[in-house]
Amino acid sequence: MRKRYDWESIFNDFASSGLAAKQFCLERNLNYHSFINKRKQIKKNSSSFLPVVISVPSDKISFSFDGHIIEVDSSINDDALCRVINALKSS
Known about the structure:
54% of the residues lie in helices and 15% in strands. The chain has helices at 4-17, 21-28, 32-45, 78-90; strands at residues 52-53, 60-65, 68-73.
C-alpha cells in the first residue's frame, strides 16, 4: 500500500507529465481507478485555504496556487476568479 507522500509524488509527476490520467497510469503500471479515487480523497482532505500575496499599488493581483503563479487584473469579478481557481483545482 502506498503512503500519502508516495501518492503526492505520483500526482506531481502526473501534473508535469502532460499525459491523460489513463495513459499516465498505463505507463506507470498504476491502477487507474485507485489513482482517481486517491486523488479525490487527497484533494478532499487537503486544506481549501489558498495563500494569497497582494502587492500594492498595482492594477494586478498575484497569488500562488498548487505550484502555479496566477496574475489577474484587479478588476476581475469574483465569478471569473472562482472559475480560474476551480479549473486549477480540477487539473
